[in-house]
């Protein structure tokens, strides 16, 4: 019994940048697209398959990939539509501002994370200021709808106050964790001290 070649969309390629970070897995289509876009550093290495496979230089894999593909009953375009979004994150880390330091102070970020939430039950302002719009809007909506909204409804339906309290506690914990761990703004710049 002969072994069938893997599907062109099988996630089999791994890429290791010269600094040692590993990205992937990628399928053949993604590998070719990323290579055409110049995302693979010539000093990086790639591996096809699982851990036992040896890492080889990107240039060697490039030459091997440019050889004619084995005959297949279906082309890669039949497996993936042109409108399909890539399933893997980009290979490049976020671009940092040349100055490398944010105009936002770490102390201001921490105060905005804790004070409005603990005093007014309004969360997410710290994330909006730091540029994390998705997180900030999520926290703001949760605090306005589920803490304030359910708190107001609890005047008529007292059991909703318990739900409101649980959401408030969750938002407090979330804000404390972010205040303790987030050290860069959304553009990758370190908070000023």
List descriptors.
single chain, 193 residues, alpha+beta, 2 domains, four-stranded antiparallel sheet, two-stranded parallel ribbon
Poorly predicted ranges (pLDDT <50, ≥5 residues)? Answer: 68-87
Mean pLDDT: 79
Instruction: State the strand order across the main sheet.
Output: 2-1-3-4
Series of secondary-structure elements, N-terminal to C-terminal: EEHEEHHEHHHHE
Structural class: alpha+beta
Helix content: 40-55%
Explain what you see:
- The chain has 193 residues and is of the alpha+beta class.
- It folds into 2 domains: 13-79, Dna Ligase, domain 1; 101-192, no CATH class.
- The chain has helices spanning 28-36, 58-66, 76-79, 106-120, 125-130, 133-153, 160-181, and strands spanning 13-16, 22-26, 45-48, 56-57, 101-105, 190-192.
- The strands form 2 sheets. It has a 4-stranded antiparallel beta sheet with strand order 2-1-3-4. It has a two-stranded parallel sheet with strand order 5-6.
- The longest helix is centred in the C-terminal third of the chain and has 22 residues, at 160-181.
- The relative contact order is 0.12.
Offer a concise description of the structure.
With 193 residues, this protein is α+β, with helices and mostly antiparallel strands. The chain is 45% helix and 12% strand. The chain is elongated and about 70 Å long.
